[in-house]
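step 4 of 6: structure.
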Amino acid sequence: MSTFRRKKRSYHHGDLQAALIRTAGKMLEKEGVEALKLREVARRAGVSHNAPYRHFAEREALLAALAAEGFEWLGAAQRKAAEAGGLRGMGEAYVHFALTQPQRFRLMFGGQISIAKHPQLREVATKTFEALAGALCARVPEAQGAGDSSIAAWALVHGLAQLLLGGRISSVAKRGRDDATFVREVLASVRFVARAPVA
Amino acid sequence: MSTFRRKKRSYHHGDLQAALIRTAGKMLEKEGVEALKLREVARRAGVSHNAPYRHFAEREALLAALAAEGFEWLGAAQRKAAEAGGLRGMGEAYVHFALTQPQRFRLMFGGQISIAKHPQLREVATKTFEALAGALCARVPEAQGAGDSSIAAWALVHGLAQLLLGGRISSVAKRGRDDATFVREVLASVRFVARAPVA
DNA sequence: TAGCATAAGTAGACAATGTCAACATTTAGG
DNA sequence: CCTAAATGTTGACATTGTCTACTTATGCTA
């Protein structure tokens, strides 16, 4: 289970910051962002309602930390998929990440966290994206239009994740296929070209 | 400007429901979903803090109404683009919608509105999506794999919109192109195929 | 046209939350 | 060992969503 600090009730916690992130992470996935109240997190962590403020300037800062953690996980997943396989594998891993941790994914891309206000988040996200873009560029077949094709590839998987996550894809379109198969086949229906078509 | 009911301060408003949606819509785009407090909307509409409850069971119901309105607008925009042009035009219109009304778009797809709890929203959204899917199927070049290709096309534009909206696309990737051009060229870098590739 | 049911709006109350300020307790460094 | 900086705690406040009870206007019916 989770590491227990503060076995003996002591004034100081030991590593409250990590504990808060851990607790908040669970709450996030189980009950959604809306349910992620600062006071409730404190309660579950067994500290006073104001203790979190020693580690996070405001609620949004905690959310930012969770999002940052998410970007690191996503980055790791993509790195792994990139090593193992090619473009398709990365795409599948991307969607898999989103479907496995929907609330986290929403938090990361929902836009409710002011990107300007949390430079640390910006940095982590940027790093992840740059790695992603690099891996994509190296793998998109048409090196000529690699730039745009990479963006297109990213947008494709990102959009697919988002739509699946929102339950926007009708069952008729899925034709009974499970998520993984569906994703694989949808992604397979796309090709990238080097240059813009004539018209 | 906006239609003024309740010129003479009368007990009844005339059409508060519409007024609330109008006011909330402005607030949404100007200040974001978070700032959309029920009491503030009431205040700006010039009614008591409880008046909205005669028209919306809860805060989320007002959000649902705004989202529904958004889906209708999006549907209309897509219909218009479908008449005017082809697949590319529709895609560009989709992204344009998102970039023009970012907060609305986020509300529509952010997942913070319980879809199960608001059947009316579900209905409007479904109707829009079915029309969209139909139009796509009719326009995706490869009729054989039209189903998956349509989903892919939708996911592509949706994801592109989302990424642009979140400022996730680095300026280097955009290479100085304005949004419209960038979108057009990214979308042009993709082709749809009839069947899954051999590997 | 009078009267009444109902829709629409108001007033007040309550618990919960985010956040601030002031105070308490550890911990660590000199 | 003693003191400053971290880290937690208590208490307070404004704001919000939402409930209940009350008031006023509207429109139907007799």
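step 5 of 6: annotate
 - The first helix of chain B runs from residue 16 to 31.
 - The first strand of chain B starts at residue 190 and ends at 192.
step 6 of 6: archive
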